[in-house]
Design a protein that fits this description.
Blueprint lengths: L3 H14 L3 H14 L3 H13 L3 H17 L3 H14 L4 H13 L26
């Protein structure tokens, strides 16, 4: 038997295929209440864009960015801030949130790891005793 999450996800897909945007949002909200996946908020933002609700879409993208950042997915969070800025380039709140995240991102330093040398194994057939 399919889980309730799977059933709701199938309903969402059906609504999206039929371009029933409002019903899709309702089902996605239910899905988010069951499983707090930031990607669901991103999809809700996408649907709100299709409904020409730019401000609501921006809020969804910002919520997704915050959730991604809380979970340590900084690159995904930055992508959501960039998407929100694309919709409203003059929004200074989004810019400041993005800058704060950039300043708090852990810096990854690349260093060369030592390589262990092992001589190549001889090519041949090995027989097992069994």
């Amino acid at each position: 038997m399919a889980s309730i999450r799977t059933i709701i996800a199938e309903k969402v897909q059906e609504h999206l295929n039929n371009a029933d945007w409002k019903a899709a949002i309702t089902e996605m909200e239910i899905l988010f209440s069951i499983h707090q996946d930031p990607l669901i908020r991103v999809r809700i933002g996408d649907v709100r864009q299709k409904l020409n609700r730019k401000d609501e879409a921006i809020q969804e993208y910002l919520l997704a960015a915050d959730l991604f950042a809380e979970r340590g997915f900084f690159v995904k969070a930055l992508a959501q801030y960039r998407l929100a800025l694309r919709l409203d380039p003059s929004n200074m709140d989004i810019r400041s949130k993005r800058e704060r995240l950039l300043m708090s991102c852990p810096v990854v330093t690349w260093k060369r790891e030592p390589v262990e040398y092992r001589p190549p194994e001889p090519i041949g057939v090995t027989c097992s005793p069994y």
